[in-house]
Design a protein that fits this description.
hydrolase activity, hydrolyzing O-glycosyl compounds, 39% strand, Ig-like_GH2, Glycoside hydrolase family 2 protein, alpha+beta, hydrolase, six-stranded antiparallel beta sheet, single chain
Length: 691
């Protein structure tokens, strides 16, 4: 009875909110009964609320064999008798990885793919006026026919995003267009003077007779109607059709990234006899952009170097089962950093997060989970028809579901594949052609870590290089960029990943590169790595984008390095989002010019062993002054990457107070911390590897 009460209450609320349209959209996240499928004992299930994953603990234990199998999710819903003439759907925003749905014990459908939304129509499976049983069997076991088959991240199992019960009339905007809204807003031509757009809408008619209707497109600026267009149509009996309605806006207000992320709202309404049958609203951010092999990226005619980060969708306490407040916090941290771009690696992420990127004005690289082995064993491509069809389906899902987000400017097709064995190149060409057919307005890209002909298929290309961490020196990335640009002058180049591990608990006086696979990842090397990498990357205009790996530490069960097992610690922020590492503030000083700041690096190195020290600060003001125990060590001019250094600074035995003050005109900011000099303490750090 409790499930019925919640459902009916939700219906009342949603009916009030949606009084002019027949669609009802009810989130049914609460009160599911869960058990691992292998536990067949009666009474073994227990209550969970969605989003949920069963891998919140075992993935971080340092054991690669975390549970990958089937989890059963069961829920009772009451279907009112009043819905007998309606169509009923279940929409899953994300479940990893293969989902089989049963309604009242009958198999109602299957979806393969862990990162896109999918919808099942259950009209013919429910009993009206009765309680109905939903059973979703979700399987995160490895499957060589489903992308991804390998990855340097955790494959959390479960229904980890929202589930919707949706009810429509017999005629509606389709919910079965690859899990999308059923509406694509194609920006054929956009300038500061004029925008030409087509609203492509998939409509469905479940009746056994043809039906006359009207499709109305209304564009809103807040509460103000900018334009209304209508198209009279005939919906054939028991079929779906695609309807295009063009519209034009003169002197449009453009979506202009971080500077002005303005959004119109497009309201698409299916009508008959003057009444609304169904309605969908979508964001409409009008913009135009260009990638150039020499000049990089431009937005609305303005050169805009894309400086950003990569993001995984997991965190310490919840795995990948993130709630809106988690996405809000991540977006806020990203915006505070001053980044204007993000690579959402290595898979489509939550619709809610794309909405946040629209509103913040952050350019998005969205990609499918076509992931290669990187520096590990196994292979990311299987040359079977089932695997290839699944990848194409996931690509179509991503593009159609997220088409209307103005923040998305590139579609990513793969990450770190190799041509050995089954050669993925012919298949990549197929994906590239499919992406252009689905969306001719956005270029394709990919991320590579090898020299192979697969690097020259997509419109743009990114490289995952870790010079100064896994090999070489940090400065070498500049040499590599220059050589690559010279050898391939027409290639549009990005750095899709660069980064170094760091533990906030591991500090040292000596600046020395650690062994990446070791249990020692001192924070100061990550800071130095990013200073030197960014100096090279930022000085080359032809680099259309660069993406730090990673914004946050993330789960990778097979890793045994740094201060704990099961974590990739290359994040600028800790896994729990509580501590921003020194490198975060380096980028903030470079990228966030609105918030005046100064930050002293090395503040967690509380115990110093050397009398003479070098102190480094990051500030977006033109000069800064260092004080040690109240004594000035002089003013220094900030360099071109917002860094100030004082060398040969003498500490006294015991406690020392370090303070840096940055000033400009009437603006004054400062930062302070204490450290202790204990010169007889041996600064010898372990370099033990995990092998």
């Amino acid at each position: 009875m409790r499930a019925r009460h919640i459902l009916l209450t939700s219906l009342i609320i949603l009916s009030c909110l949606n009084a002019n349209a027949q669609r009802k959209d009810i989130i049914i996240n609460d009160d599911w009964k869960f058990r691992l499928s292998l536990d067949v004992r009666r009474g073994s299930e227990y209550r969970v609320d969605l989003p949920h994953t069963w891998n919140t603990q075992d993935t971080y234990s340092g054991v690669t064999g975390y549970h990958r199998g089937i989890g059963n999710y069961k829920r009772i819903i009451h279907i009112p008798s009043e819905w007998e003439d309606e169509r009923i759907y279940l929409r899953f925003e994300g479940a990893n990885c293969t989902t089989d749905l049963f309604i009242n014990g009958r198999h109602a459908g299957q979806h393969k793919g862990g990162y896109g939304a999918f919808t099942f129509e259950i009209t013919d499976f429910v009993e009206h006026g009765s309680d109905n049983t939903i059973l979703a069997k979700v399987n995160n076991a490895e499957d060589i026919e489903v992308m991804p088959v390998v990855g340097d991240f955790n494959f959390y199992g479960g229904i980890y995003r929202d589930v919707h019960l949706i009810v429509t009339g017999q005629a509606s905007i389709s919910l079965l267009d690859y899990g999308s809204s059923g509406v694509r807003l194609v920006q054929d031509s956009v300038s500061h003077q004029y925008a030409s757009v087509r609203a492509i809408t998939v409509l469905t008619n479940g009746k056994d007779i043809d039906m006359d209707a009207t499709l109305r497109i209304r564009v809103l600026d807040g509460d103000k109607t900018v334009l209304t267009e209508e198209e009279d149509i005939t919906l054939p009996a028991d079929s779906d059709i695609k309807c295009e309605v063009p519209f034009h806006i003169y002197n449009p207000h453009l979506w202009d990234g971080r500077r002005d992320p303005f959004l119109y709202t497009a309201e698409i309404t299916l009508m008959a006899d003057g009444k609304s049958l169904d309605q969908v609203t979508q964001p409409l951010g009008l913009r135009y952009f260009h990638f150039d092999a020499d000049k990089g990226f431009s937005l609305n005619g303005r050169h805009l170097p894309l400086h950003g980060v990569c993001r995984h969708q997991d965190r310490a306490e919840t795995g990948n089962a993130l709630r809106t407040e988690h996405h809000d916090e991540d977006a806020k941290i990203l915006a505070e950093l001053g980044a204007n771009a993000v690579r959402l690696a290595h898979y489509p992420q939550s619709e809610y997060f794309y909405n946040l990127m629209d509103r913040y004005g952050i350019i998005v690289w969205a990609e499918i989970p076509f992931v290669g082995p990187g520096g590990y064993n196994d292979k990311g491509f299987t040359d079977t028809q089932a695997f290839k069809e699944n990848g194409k389906e996931q690509l179509i899902e991503m593009i159609r579901q997220h088409y209307n987000h103005p923040s998305i400017c590139v579609w990513g097709l793969f990450n770190e594949l190799t041509p050995d064995g089954d050669n993925p190149i012919p298949y990549i060409k197929e994906l590239n052609a499919l992406a252009h057919a689905e969306d001719p307005t956005r270029p394709t890209t990919a991320a590579t870590n090898t020299d192979a002909s697969l690097n020259f298929i997509t419109d743009l290309m990114g490289w995952n290089h870790y010079f100064g961490w896994y090999n070489g020196t940090p400065e070498y990335i500049g040499t590599w960029l220059d050589n690559t640009h010279k050898e391939h002058p027409d290639l549009k180049i990005a750095i899709s990943e660069y980064g170094a591990g760091a533990s906030i608990y591991q500090q040292q006086d000596t600046l020395a590169r650690p062994i990446p696979e070791s249990l020692w990842h001192p924070e100061n090397w990550q800071t130095e790595y990013h200073i030197k990498n960014w100096r090279e990357i930022s000085s080359r205009q032809f680099v259309w984008g660069s993406f730090v790996w990673n914004l946050f530490d993330f789960g990778a069960s097979h890793r045994h390095e740094g201060d704990r097992a099961g974590i990739n610690d290359k994040g600028l922020v800790t896994f729990d989002r509580k501590v921003k590492k020194d490198a975060y503030f380096f980028y903030k000083a470079n990228w966030n010019k609105d918030e005046k700041m100064v930050y002293i690096a090395g503040r967690r190195n509380k115990l110093r062993t050397k009398e003479l020290q070098t102190f480094t600060a990051f500030t977006n003001l033109p000069e800064a002054e260092l004080f040690v125990n109240g004594k000035s060590y002089g003013k220094k001019t900030t360099d071109e990457i917002c860094t100030v250094k004082w060398e040969g600074v003498k500490l006294t035995q015991g406690k020392n107070t370090i303070k840096v003050v940055a000033r400009h005109s009437k603006v004054k900011v400062s930062d302070t911390y204490d450290c202790t000099l204990q010169s007889d303490y041996q600064d010898i750090k372990p370099q033990t590897t995990t092998k």
